[in-house]
Amino acid sequence: MATQRKSILTATFGEYARLNPALIASYGGEANIERMISTNVRQANAAGFDVDNIAINPEDPADSIKRFEAKLRSQDWDGLLVGWGLRGNQSHTVLFEAAVNVAREVAPQTRMLFGNAPDDMFMTIQRNFPEAK
């Protein structure tokens, strides 16, 4: 367990994932995704990590980046976990690049983490913060 609590910001599609029913279905439906995320957040909390999310709307990139920047500035973050939905689809590359560049400029001390699925958030935290057990 981390000796001092650490803060992780996740940048995911959040509620905007509903705009892509095929994406939701690929992970077993909305209830299953919520279960996976809740389990991972509980694991992270138990290991000394506080997790907050900023929902990125792929249909409104300008507003999303504006809100993302404000969230990054709202506190010091130990880690920024970018979800697969944002970085794993070629059609979202411009939005992904904008998010990464804003993070690099606004919070250069924040460790960048890259998740692969809704159920690997805690594993991603463990991979990047060895003290997470």
Automatic annotation (TrEMBL):
**In terms of domain of life, where is this protein from?**
Eukaryota
Question: What is the official name of this protein in its record?
Answer: Uncharacterized protein
